[in-house]
């Protein structure tokens, strides 16, 4: 995987900008859509392998958007970024296939958990991709 794409789907403009700056500095290709349609387009075009999703985005709850995103790309790693969610919604999001639930940061400089979660998501993607490549090569041998 040459390009590591991160899509930031957050209602809050200030948070979107802060996260975008953080991940651009870290060397990721960052997409920041302003709508759910833009997020879906980015996922369908495979510009992002990891999505940072807030509790609500474009008037949709994360638990409504996660299954749609996963239908577009079942290998997509979704990191739910929210501070105060009812346990039932976190459970539902986990059942829908999120990679991680990160707490929303309140201050600049508090992003280490989020940075680590994105790094781990890309490591997982790389491991799965390497395993898939090995399976394909073994099929070619037979």
What are the defining features of this structure?
single chain, Rossmann fold, five-stranded parallel sheet, two-stranded antiparallel sheet, 7 strands
Give your account of this protein's structure.
With 142 residues, this protein is α/β, with parallel strands linked by helices. It has a single domain, classed as 3-Layer(aba) Sandwich (Rossmann fold). It has helices spanning 13-25, 36-44, 62-72, 87-96, 112-141; strands at 5-9, 29-31, 50-54, 56-57, 60-61, 77-81, 100-102. The strands form two sheets. It has a five-stranded parallel sheet with strand order 2-1-3-6-7, with helices on both faces. Strand 1 (5-9), helix 1 and strand 2 (29-31) form a beta-alpha-beta unit. The relative contact order is 0.15. The mean pLDDT is 88.
The main sheet orders its strands as 2-1-3-6-7
Query: Tally of extended strands?
Result: 7
Give the name of the CATH superfamily.
Answer: Response regulator
CATH architecture: 3-Layer(aba) Sandwich
Percent range for β-strand residues: 15-25%
End-to-end CA span: 26 Å
Radius of gyration: 15 Å
> Which shape, going by the Cα principal axes?
globular
What structural category characterises the helix and strand content? Answer: alpha/beta
CATH T-level fold name: Rossmann fold
Order of helices and strands: EHEHEEEHEHEH
Q: Provide the domain count.
A: 1
Number of helices: 5
- Poorly predicted segments: none
Average pLDDT confidence is 88
